[in-house]
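Possible regression after last week's pipeline update?

I re-ran a chain I had predicted before the update to compare outputs. Posting the input and the new output here so someone can diff against the archived version. Not blocking, just want to make sure nothing changed silently.
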Amino acid sequence: MQLLRHLVSILILPTSAVVLMPLWLLHRFGGTWPGDRSMDAMLLQIAGALLFAAGFVLFAWCVWLFGRVGEGTLAPWDPPRHFVAVGPYRYTRNPMISGVAVMLIGEALFFISIPLALWALTFIAVNQLYFMLSEEPRLERRYGARYRAYKAAVPRWTPRRTPWDER
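New output (post-update):
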């Protein structure tokens, strides 16, 4: 049952951002499809593929932590039941969204697409507002002083140099 909950939340949220919107943008505005054999295009596409893979690994790790440690999903309607501040969450408060943003930047490079780059920036800006106005106040209400201490010590996006230790 938990696997189904994860799959539904992944299909609705990150799949929309990383698959459906980029496909629509590429169809509507185009991009350079792999096949352009100039050295510059190939280097951008290799960098994009590597970034996408790194973002995917980070995203998948965070989804796993939400299920394993938090006993919930990435969806706001089925959030983790327990506070998750392990793994990449010891360095930054939003590694899952960072992973998705890195995947989007990787896609923009891979397809050499300005519309995809603008979509990545829009995604980041919308999430900045969402976290400031909705997610963080909700987490403060839910976890109280524990979350406030975490929030004071762990940056929203830029990773800490050392892992946060709750003790």
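Follow-up from reviewer: compared with the archived run. Residues 56 and 99 are 6 Å apart (CA to CA). Marking as no regression found.
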